[in-house]
Amino acid sequence: MRLNLWWPSRAEHRFEKWIAQRHQERVLAGDTAPQGPCPREDFLQKLARKSRDILLSDPRVDHAATCPACMRRLLTMRREHQARRQKLVFASAVATCVVIAAVITVARHEMEKRSLATNSAVVAETVNLWDAGAFRGEQPGQLQSVSLPAARVRLTIILPRFSSPGRYLVAVTHAPDENGLITEAASTTANRGQQETLSVDLDLRRARAGQYYLSTTHEQDQASYYYPLQIR
Ligand SMILES: [Zn+2]
User: Which domain holds residue 185?
Assistant: First the structure.
């Protein structure tokens, strides 16, 4: 590779390291003659951290490079320094992960809170069945107008004329029978002039838009009436 002409190759680095190790061994074995007194601890600390404050022409550098005591201190300091740096890198990586996890958790929580707030709003709706049903040849076509949102609905039903008062079961189903039940609720009629009304809470949040049936079943006679329902 052309780069090898300009930059020391891995083999050269290995060679330099080998020379440095041989030198260290000689120093630690006391084969060198250090000049001058041992420098202070803070100077050795700086040297161990390869601080830029230190000039290589400083005689204390020469001393440290040839004194077995200083060399031993330097090697220990370098090991400690590297361990500290690794710990720091690890700690900051952990801290970053914790921050990311926290941000994700908070964002998800906020989104859930917001979607719950929009989903849990109760919508008041009235379904007028006064003229509905198979009474006196009334046209079933007008029943197509029964439409409810896919939400939590507080539903008021005006029952067809001649309906009996009492307790009713109100259900939303896929088919005009009990199959594919979406939700149901029971309620007792209230009298509003001539009309009998029912008030029930229906949770239609799980229903997809489409055709369904709304049914009323009188608890006493168990007769069910089904009305086509559009969920929007
Ligand atoms: Zn020394």
Answer: 122-231
